[in-house]
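Title: Prediction job returns without error message
Component: structure pipeline
Severity: low
Priority: P3
Assignee: unassigned

Description:
Job completed but the reporter wants confirmation the result is attached to the right record. Sequence as submitted:
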Amino acid sequence: MTQLNSIPVSPKLEPTSLFVALHGWGANCNDLTPFVGELNLPDYRFEFPDAPLPHPEVPGGKMWYDLSNQEYQGLVESRQMLIDWLISLESKTGIPLSKTILCGFSQGGAMAMDVGVTLPLAGLIILSGYLHSPLQPSVEKLPPILIVHGIKDPVVPIQQGRQSRDTFTNLGANIQYQEFDMGHEIRPEILKLMRSFVIDVIAKA
């Protein structure tokens, strides 16, 4: 693992903010690209990075780390790569971390929570995510966080979403938490919620 490859999508005008979306286990950088049209944020540059590890069972699929055992092989390396890559985006795009939203779905949500407490980001969006290890914040103030989870999620049980909510609440973060009557998915009403959250936190950044 030497670098993270990503699909950048820039608006025609000079972007003022950045939205980074991390895909889940077995997906790849193309999985969340529909966000560009659905979120309708014309002033934003979007980045969709590929996880660095090939998925063992899904052709073309990627993973941030191995879920086959409790060792979570690859996590330490992926974490550092993601942090370094996010920091590098500022010089590449001209957009500071303070104007950057980090979003993640499922395993990508786990990664977003992990690295999101180490960088001065504008906000975090966690979709059907989970905590894969105790959080170790290293920023003075945690960014605002939107956590969304389905009460019928068969992949990441709702208890995981509630644990994430409680953990961030105990850390003093500004949390917006919402449960939906759904499984492991992203519905249109969630995209509306995400858009409102993004516009709100960037306006205050």
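Comment from assignee: result matches the submitted record. The helical segments are 35-39, 75-93, 107-116, 158-170, 188-204.
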